[in-house]
Amino acid sequence: MAGKILGMPTFIFLLGISAVFVALIAALLRFSPETHSPRLFTVEELALYNGTDEGLPILLGILGSVFDVTKGKSHYGTGGGYNHFSGRDASRAFVSGNFTGDGLTDSLRGLSSSEVKSVVEWRDFYFRSYTFIGKLVGRYYDSHGNPTKYLKGVEVKAARGAQLLEKQKIEEAKQLSCNSRWSQDSGGEVWCDVGIPRLVQRPLEIALTGKMSKRCVCFKEDQLDQPGLEVYDGCDFLATTCRV
């Protein structure tokens, strides 16, 4: 009959169904990607989480990714050895070692591919070791949290650095490296168990580090006429051991 009042058992049953429905909706909302999307920080907001306020977590940014490093408070808190990283993105300082003034910047301009690769590896360390909670709007992420061209360029340069480093390792593995030792009393020396020590340029080093370096390689006597081989200062032409 229309308008009939529901009995108590039916009312309780419908009430239970409603409660289950509400709980289901709440669960869906709670695990929605939108409600769990990374928080976006401005530079000014991130600066508040530098460890000076005991009521706030300690955060740091690297390449625009923001991490909660509160569990490392002894290092990142006030007076800690890494406090200069807290409350900011100081990506450059991770490889430059300049922890003051303009050195505490997120700009990687002018760094070599190997240095950029190192910064990316530091960011990966924080992803493994701490909690990622958001993104810093600016150089690496736009106001919608999307990666910028600058971040994409950093990723490409780091990947190129990794490729060059691997290629250098493969090429150098084909040559027999010198033995070496050093002591405060007698200084350093290099020697070859088989062959004669010579200094050679590392051809990929400029692309990797922006500098040219040399390494010691052991050559057979009939290989010493190759171009680019350098005799150690003060060392005899055919000596198997040289002071350095």
List keywords for this structure.
single chain, 244 residues, alpha+beta, three-stranded antiparallel β-sheet, 7 helices, 9 strands, elongated
What does this structure look like?
The protein has 244 residues and is of the alpha+beta class. The chain contains 7 helices and 9 strands. The strands form 3 sheets. Strands 1-4-3-2 form a 4-stranded mixed β-sheet. The chain has a 3-stranded antiparallel β-sheet with strand order 5-6-9, with no helix packed on it.
Gross geometry? elongated
Biggest sheet character: 4 strands, mixed
- What percentage of the residues does DSSP assign to strands (E)? 15-25%
Number of strands: 9
Which residues sit in consecutive blocks of at least 5 with pLDDT less than 50? Answer: 1-6, 11-15, 19-35
Task: Give the neighbour order of strands across the main sheet.
Answer: 1-4-3-2
Structural class category: alpha+beta
What is the count of DSSP helices, taking H or I runs of 4+ residues?
7
Q: Mean pLDDT across all residues, rounded? A: 85
Order of helices and strands: HEHEEHHHEHEEEHEE
Question: What's the end-to-end separation, in Å?
Answer: 106 Å
Q: What share of residues is helical? A: 25-40%
Radius of gyration: 30 Å
Topology:
Blueprint: H1 8-30, E1 39-41, H2 43-46, E2 59-62, E3 65-68, H3 73-76, H4 93-96, H5 113-129, E4 131-136, H6 149-173, E5 179-183, E6 187-191, E7 196-201, H7 205-209, E8 214-219, E9 241-243
Parallel strand pairs: 1-4
Antiparallel strand pairs: 2-3, 3-4, 5-6, 6-9, 7-8
